[in-house]
Amino acid sequence: MIQTSAGFRGLVQSQRLGSFQSKLGACYNYASGAASSLQHACEPSTYSDGDYADVDWDNLGFGLLPTDYMYRMKCFKDGKFEQGQLSRYGNIELSPSAGVLNYGQGLFEGTKAYRKENGCLLLFRPDQNAIQMKIGAERMCMPSPSIDQFVDAVKQTALANKRWAPPPGKGTLYIRPLLMGTGPVLGLAPAPEYTFLVYASPVGNYFKEGLAPLNLYVEDEYHRASRGGAGCVKTISNYAPVLKAITKAKNRGFSDVLYLDSLNKKYLEEVSSCNIFIVKGNVISTPATNGTILSGVTRKSIIEIAQDLGYEVEERVISVDELVNVDEVFCTGTAVVIAPVGSITYQDKRIEYRTGAYSLSRKLYSTLVGIQMGLIEDKKGWTLEIR
Ligand code: COI
């Protein structure tokens, strides 16, 4: 069943903590290394399912709220990651000549845990983030954790910080896996040692606009990625270079920046932190992954959901000139989820788009988040329930 977003929000907001606490039901009791390594590395956990951290859950944004634990796993010269473990969240020590500090040899991922009414946490396709990190690691000449190691670390981090997972409908526990060259290098070369680290923070909406439509600015001076570069992977070095363009756009009152390809300055690429889709009638289009576009777990999921709903989805080259002739535009990403775009400004011309209760982006948002929260049946095996 698909609910409208308004109905869906009403539903989740009416869920009360009391009913959540009394409804702890059966769910997969994830024990693998979590409990044991937590107890070896830290003081015994006094956590019980009913506990919540002291957070103003109604006013979560996308800022860091430090949580209790982080997970760390190291890889030395043999290219294999040793057994990782949880420790108290805190600062880490790095050599001044660490590869990540000197040459930007680092990758990150983002994934979320949703708290269900029955007290379990629901992860969404963490294996896909693991695969994305593996592909990125290959591009950046780094060893990477196996898919099992990655997913296990995400589970352990989520469970150890469970009291920071917002009540259902109030937000999510954002989980940030990092892979870094932490060994010392001076000459330009891959680092001799690597650290895989996972931390978490409760989050609400990514944009300060909340779920309100974004006003994007098309940037034709700065670019996010170029052919042959690393735009298709989640390297940390893809993000600092766009800060200048974001700052410029925000100073002019825009929500964020839409980048064009660096060669022709004509084809749509991505928004700073998310992928972009356009809608015309029954056809949904998104830039094809040609080396400069991140394929994105939310992007892939939305393509499948839209196809299941009967829409035609095209991954192709999209000219900026097409923006004058489309019904709807929206962005997708783990942090962003699905954000409707109300307007795009290109060369001082502002184009407006359909948004609101009857928009396709609202329908896709309700379906995706419904699956992620466990409110809509997951027929694809995308969610992983842990407790
Ligand atoms: C995410 O969507 O999880 C990201 O990693 C984007 C980041 C810039 C917040």
From TrEMBL:
Pfam families given for it?
Answer: Aminotran_4
* Amino-acid biosynthesis keyword on record: yes
List the catalytic activities from the record.
L-valine + 2-oxoglutarate = 3-methyl-2-oxobutanoate + L-glutamate; L-isoleucine + 2-oxoglutarate = (S)-3-methyl-2-oxopentanoate + L-glutamate; L-leucine + 2-oxoglutarate = 4-methyl-2-oxopentanoate + L-glutamate
E.C. designation(s): 2.6.1.42
Keywords from UniProt, A to Z, are: Amino-acid biosynthesis, Aminotransferase, Branched-chain amino acid biosynthesis, Pyridoxal phosphate, Transferase
Q: Which InterPro entries match?
A: Aminotrans_IV (IPR001544), Aminotrans_IV_CS (IPR018300), Aminotransferase-like (IPR036038), B_amino_transII (IPR005786), BCAT-like_C (IPR043132), BCAT-like_N (IPR043131), BCAT_family (IPR033939)
PROSITE patterns per record: AA_TRANSFER_CLASS_4 (PS00770)
Name the domain of life.
Answer: Eukaryota
Kindly indicate where the leader peptide sits in this chain. none
Tell me which cofactor or cofactors this protein depends on. Answer: pyridoxal 5'-phosphate
Q: What class of enzyme is it?
A: transferase
Of which family is this protein a member? Belongs to the class-IV pyridoxal-phosphate-dependent aminotransferase family.
Q: What's the protein name?
A: Branched-chain-amino-acid aminotransferase
Q: Which species is this UniProt entry from? A: Hevea brasiliensis
